[in-house]
Design a protein that fits this description.
By secondary structure, the protein is an alpha/beta fold. The chain is built from twelve helices and eleven strands.
Length: 285
């Protein structure tokens, strides 16, 4: 009996230590930090340190691997990747000159796996198309009238907080009532589903001669409602829906003097164009 127990303990112990060394080698988060990816893409790849740097968290794993390989091999080179090339030991630069080693293919895979699966659950969408406010702005500039940009916040929000100037329409996903009912879970007034949400989107698409597979960008306060709306749209057959992960106002700061305030990312904090003046035809179309 003692023998069996001894065997059992050694077996478990060795399999635990085996497992933990595996985890160490393939820990995407540790590799992301070690290679200095956080210097630009921010902690967790979700809060980039500058407007022109993309959000990585939550993107499709295969997409991240392909892109990272293209950047590190020099196959994809742009004004922006130039900064990345400066930080890494590319060409004749050696680590002792203060550059960071380029991650190898296995490391890139581990990083991508970690990034791809770790967007907060409430911000995940079945389409898996995520953009920061800045990226949404750039993509929309390029796409012109081939895409729709929809603000899905309540009328109360756009009335008092303003709205991006390049919006195609305000179609609320949730509606505010008369602020007479309380929601204890959200510690705020109760909101109600807008039963006309999908109908209005399909009307707008028709209006613009676009189809269900056209790119549609959704923005809300900070990326949770737009994820819920993306889910509903997915069920209704809309495959190309982008969720702006940081929304109009952005996420709340987790520490520092602005803790609890929406001061770190989002459309407004990224200094993208918006206004308190609303356009009548974007709201009642
Ligand atoms: C010095 C700043 C900087 C560092 C450090 C950096 N990146 Fe980037 N990264 C960028 C910029 C800027 C872009 C946008 C490039 C473009 O659009 O041409 C980018 C783009 C990417 C993309 C493509 C994302 C997309 O949506 O197209 C991936 C993937 C990526 N980086 C991964 C990494 C990884 C992994 C590391 C660490 C090993 C890293 N980056 C380190 C600046 C940086």
């Amino acid at each position: 009996m003692q023998y069996v127990l001894y065997f059992f303990i050694t077996f478990c112990f060795s399999s635990i230590s085996q497992a933990s060394s595996d985890i160490k080698e393939s820990n995407g988060e540790a590799l992301f930090n070690k290679h200095g990816c956080t210097n630009c893409h921010g902690n967790n790849g979700i809060h980039p340190t500058s407007n022109y740097i993309p959000v990585l968290k939550g993107k499709q794993i295969d997409y991240l691997i392909k892109k990272a390989n293209a950047i590190f091999s020099g196959e994809h080179f742009s004004n922006k990747t130039r900064f990345m090339h400066e930080q890494f030991c590319i060409g004749n630069k050696l680590p002792d000159e203060g550059c960071y080693p380029i991650p190898d293919i296995e490391e890139i895979k581990a990083i991508a796996q970690w990034l791809g699966s770790d967007l907060p659950k409430k911000k995940k969408t079945p389409q898996k198309l995520y953009v920061s406010a800045q990226q949404a702005y750039e993509k929309l500039e390029k796409l012109g009238d081939k895409a729709l940009f929809i603000d899905i916040r309540t009328r109360a929000e756009i009335a008092f907080l303003g709205m991006p100037t390049n919006i195609d329409a305000n179609i609320p996903y949730l509606k505010a009532g008369d602020f007479s009912e309380w929601n204890e879970r959200s510690k705020n007034f109760k909101l109600y589903p807008n039963s006309q949400f999908i109908n209005k989107i399909s009307e707008l698409l028709k209006d613009r001669n676009l189809s269900k597979s056209s790119p549609i960008f959704l923005i809300c306060r900070s990326g949770s409602r737009s994820a819920k709306a993306s889910k509903l749209m997915y069920i209704a057959g809309y495959t190309n829906v982008y969720s702006v992960v940081d929304g109009f106002e952005g996420d709340k700061a987790k520490e520092g003097p602005l803790k609890g305030q929406r001061a770190i990312n989002g459309w407004k904090n990224s200094k993208l164009p918006w206004s308190y003046k609303l356009k009548h035809d974007l709201i009642f179309f």
